[in-house]
Amino acid sequence: MTPPATDAGAATDAGGAIDGGPSPDAGPIPDAGAPDAGNPSDGGTIASITTDACPANPRLLWTRSIDTADVDFRGATDGSGNLYWIEYEPPWTPQNQHPPAFLTSADSNGKNRFRVPAQVASDQLTGPFMVAYGKVFMTRGAKLAAYDAATGALSWTFDLSSTFSGGSVSGVADAGEGKLVFGVGNGQSSAVYEVDANTGATIWSNVSSVDKGFTVLGTDGKGSVLVRANLTEITDLLQLDTAGHEQWRERGIDGGWLLAWPSGLPWLQTYGASISGNGHFVSAPAGWFWMALGDEFGFAFYEATLNPFPLGVSALRGGRVVATGLLPQLNTFNGASVFPFLAGDHAVFVSQVFHAQPGLCHPGTAGAAFIGHVDSNNMYLCPIALGASDSPIDGVALLPGRLIIGRRTVINEGCGGNQFQPFTIEAYSLPGESLSTSGWVQMGGSPGLGLRPAKP
């Protein structure tokens, strides 16, 4: 059983790290916007975002350690700030590759709410996980299940195992007005279903024996659904309307992962050189991997191609880049992760870099991590004291006044055997910060990871 969180107070090791301050060359860089920052074609002036020193390291509020179970924590929350994740106990082993799953919840102070068995739950860090309409939605194979968000009790299941034998659900999204959409398929046929979130009753379905591998990428929260199909190196994208009818289809899309969908057109990750649109979607420049975007204002984060490959940040307004900056402290050459959150006129984000190491089974290790702040003029990074040499961050949530981080500690970097990794969930104080109430405010869209824009 997971113990309740302990009040850690101010962490003694949360002070500044050697590499956490501003680098000597971290100021404005004249060419920071070219070419992968998405320069607008109209030749408008792009400002430079300057880098400042961290004003104060965020204080650690509480921490809880989970050392008897594997954990799938993605930062999903509800409107009250409660946290939700899955625990697998006993942990995975080669002899026990599908351990029992437990849906687990804590409040914003880290105190236990419930921990209950979940028969329908995906393997660790695979499959959809979403919180909406007072429910937690999870999948296993071709089954979709809803659990009560207050108690963890099973509410309903939608079982398509006989229709799509050997298949699986791929993508679950909040379609708005108490409805869910999801893709399902088994290689022979595929479908998109819309169901009632409270009862699981079917509203409509779009079944195809021609298209393969339907995946729901997201919705606009008003009924339109973006779907990927026929995934190869070149894929198809299509949009369905509120009745499940195809509105448009783009064949042979190079790229096509959904970055954000505020009001208007969805933004897709592609391999173009700049921001462009075709009336169906907006293509983001190559290298843009993370976005938090409101209806008029937002931020994109990307791996800059300028040596030494710093993390780049672009501020957007009205669909165009208005300011850019680089963070040389975050060398993305061996990979990076960013968790951005739109918070009014600025963004709060967590970023972590990775380092290469020899070895086929564990070729990379997680490195330094930072809590950042950026607006259209200034940005800064504050180091996080992880307390472990290899502690990758899996999920982050921004709640009023605090940032929740979930991270693993890698203790076995060899091949085979038990790959159990203890897990830590901790909260840092961010006074005055909170998520914007509308727009694609974080990765996953809404705080419940509904793949839709948040709404007031």
Describe this structure in words.
With 456 residues, this protein is mostly beta strands. It has one domain: Methylamine Dehydrogenase, Chain H (7 Propeller), CATH 2.130.10.10. The chain contains no helices and 35 strands. The protein has a five-stranded antiparallel β-sheet with strand order 1-4-35-34-33, with no helix packed on it. It has a five-stranded mixed β-sheet with strand order 2-28-27-26-25, with no helix packed on it. It is globular and about 55 Å long. The two termini are 36 Å apart. Mean pLDDT is 88; it is low at 6-37 and 39-43.
How large, in whole angstroms, is the Cα Rg? 21 Å
Shape field: globular
Q: Show unreliable segments.
A: 6-37, 39-43
Distance between the termini: 36 Å
CATH hierarchy, class: Mainly Beta
- Lateral strand order in the biggest sheet: 1-4-35-34-33
Largest sheet: 5 strands, antiparallel
The assigned structural class equals: mainly beta
Describe the secondary structure blueprint for this structure:
Blueprint: E1 6-7, E2 47-48, E3 50-51, E4 60-66, E5 70-77, E6 83-88, E7 101-106, E8 112-117, E9 129-132, E10 135-140, E11 143-148, E12 154-159, E13 168-176, E14 179-185, E15 190-196, E16 202-208, E17 215-219, E18 225-229, E19 235-240, E20 246-253, E21 255-260, E22 267-272, E23 276-277, E24 282-285, E25 288-293, E26 297-303, E27 310-317, E28 320-331, E29 336-342, E30 347-356, E31 364-374, E32 378-383, E33 393-399, E34 402-408, E35 423-429
Parallel strand pairs: 2-28, 3-32, 22-24
Antiparallel strand pairs: 1-4, 4-35, 5-6, 6-7, 7-8, 9-10, 10-11, 11-12, 13-14, 14-15, 15-16, 17-18, 18-19, 19-20, 21-22, 23-24, 25-26, 26-27, 27-28, 29-30, 30-31, 31-32, 33-34, 34-35
